[in-house]
Amino acid sequence: MTAKGAPKEAKQRWRASAKKRMAEHQPTAETRNSVKALCYLKTDPAIIAKLLNISKMVLEKKYRDELKYGAALVAAALGMKIVESAVKGDKGALGQIARAQGIGRQEPAPPPRAKDDEKEPPPLDLANASDDDLARILAALASGTPSGTDRGHKG
């Protein structure tokens, strides 16, 4: 036994079987496309390996380019299909291209500016208001006069 607790022969058998499994798996166009599509969907490589019934090590060895560039390749292929549809006159495809490019996106309009004569008066200083001002304010509140009218200012 080795210091790690596993017999040396067991490690050698495991290595030999891993090499055999790697040699046995041969990627096909279908499995390569599946890996690309799953990368585009941001699927974890461990899950991709499980779906293909291979180890993560075999996946990383045999599908290195698909794992690295798969998402970009699928996105480019989808984009090309949308462009081809748009060229043929598909209005839905044109809308998708416009949204992707930010064309026609409307920003919310800024709130309208108050005109100089419509500026809101400064807040009332009730502590220093005269009795007449307070009576006028109370009368306006009682009558339901909209706020911002008069508010005790003499113009």
Describe the structure.
With 155 residues, the protein is an all-alpha fold. Helices cover 59% and strands 0% of the residues. It contains 7 helices and no strands. The protein has helices at 8-24, 29-40, 45-52, 56-62, 64-87, 91-101, 131-143. The chain is elongated. It starts with 7 loop residues before the first helix and ends in a 12-residue tail after the last helix. The model has no long low-confidence stretch (mean pLDDT 78).
Outline of the structure:
The protein is mainly alpha-helical and 155 residues long. It is 59% helix and 0% strand.
Radius of gyration: 36 Å
Distance from N terminus to C terminus (CA atoms, Å) equals: 101 Å
Order of helices and strands: HHHHHHH
Low-confidence stretches: none
- Assign a percent range to the helix content: 55-70%
Sheet having the most strands: none
Key terms for this structure?
single chain, 155 residues, mainly alpha, 7 helices, 0% strand
Q: Could you outline the blueprint of secondary structure elements for this entry?
A:
Blueprint: H1 8-24, H2 29-40, H3 45-52, H4 56-62, H5 64-87, H6 91-101, H7 131-143
